Amino acid sequence: MLHRINAMMEWLQKEDADTAIITSSENVFYFSSFFSDPHERLLAIVLFREQEPFLICPQMEVTSAKNAGFAYQVLGYSDTENPWDLVKAEINKRVGNVQKIAVEKTHMNIERYETLAAIFPNSAFIQAEDILNELRLLKDEQEVEKLQKACELADYAIEVAVNTIREGVTELEIVAAIEYELKKKGVEQMSFATTVLTGANAASPHGTPGLTKVQSGDFVLFDLGVVYKGYCSDITRTVAFRDVTEEHVQIYETVLKAQEAAIAISVPGVSCATLDKTARNIIREAGYGEYFTHRLGHGLGISIHEYPSITETNDLTLRSGMVYTIEPGIYIPNDIGVRIEDDVFITDQGARLLTKYPKNLQIVK
Ligand code: MN
Ligand code: MN
Questions:
Q1: DSSP assignment, residue 327?
Q2: Ligand 2 centroid vs 302 CA: distance in angstroms?
């Protein structure tokens, strides 16, 4: 935690900013190990160029914040207090004339901004996202261990899902089976709403599971992830049920080829754009280019989507320590959807797959 706080202090010095008021749950967790969803209440870690940071949270969460391991001052406020009065007082104890404040501009809402601007009328506001994204881009050993564990649980979830397939089972029944088994293993939270889509429903990449029943000839798509000690996994597998058509098998093999090609070239120095183009070209050459309608992948960690973004236009090059998904898909409206997604960790030696569930076409009988 200390080196993260130090990096932020150095950045504040470089930017000549007095303080950073960090309010997103994910970034508060990154600096404090304390994760909380405060809903409309204020949760913030406030960092300075030279002085020690402090954390402010609802009074009822002070003990949890301290127990999480935050080693500095934790300030609680009751539901009848105005937390911004406390923030102002604490900042003014450390800095007399506040002139530049860093905030997460993509997270701060207008009401809070107006409050801050009224409290510190002489201050300019700069965005803190670039440094925060940069810090979170490269994972340390402890983070990778947690991601690995989250991925093992995701692999297990896919196993449960595949074993649940039978004639007439609904998408939501499979969702329930997956989450029931994971809860038994101690998983508190999924990274996002578990997705099970069968047949033509899978042609919508972000479809919602419902009462559609699995039938012979369907390809069933599972997209899910778990949160383990604050870190998210994200896996997709698509399996077939009974009698499959030649064309559907060919679509599956094309997605698999594209996915494996992008993984094979995942080494430090290669650009995100090259990964996307490599996978996209394979799908295009097979004649399905127009049906691959999203980017190849995204970084993941504390958030399910973070940097790097694996798109055709991102020239950022891979570095040891990055973790991201590779998830090409082909979606043919009213017919079929196939996506295969793994989580990849970049090391000096190349890509290490964190998700390991087999990818050869599985036909459930
Ligand atoms: Mn996914
Ligand atoms: Mn994903």
A1: -
A2: 13
